[in-house]
TrEMBL record:
Protein name listed in UniProt: Phosphatidylinositol transfer protein N-terminal domain-containing protein
Stored PANTHER family: PHOSPHATIDYLINOSITOL TRANSFER PROTEIN, VIBRATOR, ISOFORM B
One GO MF term attached to the UniProt entry: phosphatidylinositol transfer activity
SUPFAM superfamilies in alphabetical order: Bet v1-like (SSF55961)
Domain of life: Eukaryota
CDD domains linked: SRPBCC_PITP
Domain Phosphatidylinositol transfer protein N-terminal: 3-248
Organism whose genome encodes this protein: Turnera subulata
């Protein structure tokens, strides 16, 4: 059964700032999660000028190896490599689309369509869904100031920032107290529409629910990181972030091919260091 769920993630940043924040967050999280046996391999990362759907956009193709994150119940009837996933993404910010497939489960599909808007998450149909789709869509608001405690948040998350006490040095934003979404300026929201289908008798629904929970945890963790790292990415230009992206892609692929490359957190962070003259952020 196809399931549709829309996650809405308000953020205390502007639309323009979020584009940089998101790219920085993706790079740093990929560095942290990639080892010689698991993580991300970047196959393609190139601009497109005439995509039939998005027109001008940035296209990426990646492989995710997530064997150790498979829940125990899945490993009882599927091999460890069942959580090797392929991802294609089209970034035409403020619209983006990601398609994830699994070579082991050939009928499985997961699509994330994202619209970013300068609001606090109360727009009702930013994806232009039909009446039938709206009737089956479930909406959930994610608060980055919350402290998740579910299984997938434990597996995916390691950001322990207390946003009720956090305050950005460079922007003076924060702390995030109850109801901050209605008082914050600037504010924007990532509307993430997840459509998932695993048409397998006996375990398909359970697989869909597990992956929806995984996506929820990933959205929450990544957006918590976006804000807690604001003093690192704030002020960077698109040219600087693209240069850093190319550098990071190269480092990820070198690590996948060579187990001794980037074996410590400090070495990973050095790749993303903002002390490099070529990628030094502009002072606030």
């Amino acid at each position: 059964m196809v399931q549709i769920k829309e996650f809405r993630v308000p953020m205390p940043v502007s639309l323009e700032e979020y584009q940089i924040a998101q790219m920085y967050m993706v790079m740093r999280m990929q560095q942290q999660s990639t080892t010689s046996t698991e993580g991300v391999e970047v196959l393609e990362n190139r601009p497109l000028d005439d995509d039939p759907v998005f027109g001008k956009c940035q296209y990426t193709s990646k492989i995710y190896r997530l064997q150790s994150k498979a829940p125990t119940w899945l490993t009882t009837f599927a091999p460890a490599d069942s959580l090797i996933l392929t991802e294609e993404a089209w970034n035409a910010y403020p619209r983006c689309k990601t398609v994830i497939k699994c070579p082991y489960f050939t009928k499985f599909s997961l699509t994330v369509e994202t619209v970013h808007k300068a609001d606090n998450g109360l727009s009702e149909n930013v994806h232009g869904l039909s009446k039938e789709q709206l009737a089956s869509r479930e909406v959930e608001f994610l608060d980055i100031a919350s402290a998740p405690a579910d299984y997938w948040s434990y597996v995916i998350g390691n950001n322990n920032t207390d946003f009720s006490k956090f305050k950005s040095t460079r922007t003076s934003r924060g702390p995030l107290l109850d109801g901050w979404q209605d008082r914050c300026n600037p504010v924007m929201t990532a509307y993430k529409l997840v459509t998932i289908d695993a048409p397998y008798w006996g375990f398909g629904y359970r697989l869909e629910q597990a992956l929806l929970a995984g996506e929820r945890a990933l959205f929450l963790e990544s957006h918590r990181n976006c804000f807690s790292w604001i003093d690192e990415w704030f002020g960077m230009t698109m040219q600087q972030i693209r240069q850093l992206e190319l550098k990071t892609d190269s480092a990820l692929n070198r690590r996948a091919a060579n187990p001794t490359w980037l074996t410590t957190t400090e070495e990973c962070n050095r790749v993303l260091s903002l002390d490099n003259e070529e990628t030094q952020a502009v002072p606030a």
